[in-house]
Amino acid sequence: MLPQPSFEIIGIDNIDISDRWNIHPFLSSQSSPKTRTSIKTFGLLHPPIVHKLSANQYQLICGHIRLAIFREIFVNEKDITVLVLDEKTISKTILSYILEDQLLSGTISPMEKACFFHIALNYTNTDEAAVLFSPILSQKLQPHSINKMLLLLDLEPELKIDLHNGIIGEKIALELLQLSPEDRLTLHGIIQKLELGGGKQKRLLTLSKDLALGQGKTIKELLGEFDFQDILNHPEMNHPQKTSNLLTMLQKKLFPQSNAAEEQFLKNVSRMGLPASCSISHSQSFEKNEVSVILNFHNLAEVEQRLSSIKQLIER
Fold first, then answer.
1. Domains of the chain: total
2. pLDDT attached to residue 310
């Protein structure tokens, strides 16, 4: 049975505020405006958790940001209510409390998981960590997936924050880690500037990487060229327009022959003077010479009326 924690009022100065158990070292009290507003309005509804070291000494386990904000707002307060873990509480139990405490705030971000397992592996190994913490996280963990999470710790501070906030996803972050820091920050800057979602982030990353490799350039050099900068800094286009034009230009430069064929195909179709109810499309990437003709009708009755004429055309 776990030692039962207890709520106590202790002196703030008796708390050791180190990062030993902190799973948010990439955040500051200024990055949590909602928490600040809540504490200022209602007080500390979610007390920090501390580990008792001796009669008047405690180590902060959870609530680094909450405690920092509390001290900034209530500068004259000398005491604070906390949840105290008994002196005999072992490290693995403390780790479980950290996860449970974070789950009270919602889901645990990839960055929080990375920081958690970075701490956890000081007291256990990846195999045991996968067994111990899978039930709390409600996900099947494997040692290799834990090691992959730890790679996220190599991200730059601004990328860590965006990953934590869900602006970029874990898969995109891991792909960005395969690039040089300069290329990674270049793409991240564009993602932020254009407010790109996951699908467009992936397309930007793939097209930029492939085109830069094909031209023997870095992504930073490639996207620093006039054509791309002209799009990114265009004074009249909005974000969606810039995104569309940027991705289209990358696509054209990466596949010039395919795009030339596409342009010629559209010219040929345009010269046919087709009515608005008719359209022609080609096979994917022009893999076949076949084309498809699409005829739009107002309803099924109109199709039935014209069916004999359509059959005659097909049979010729």
1. 2
2. 78
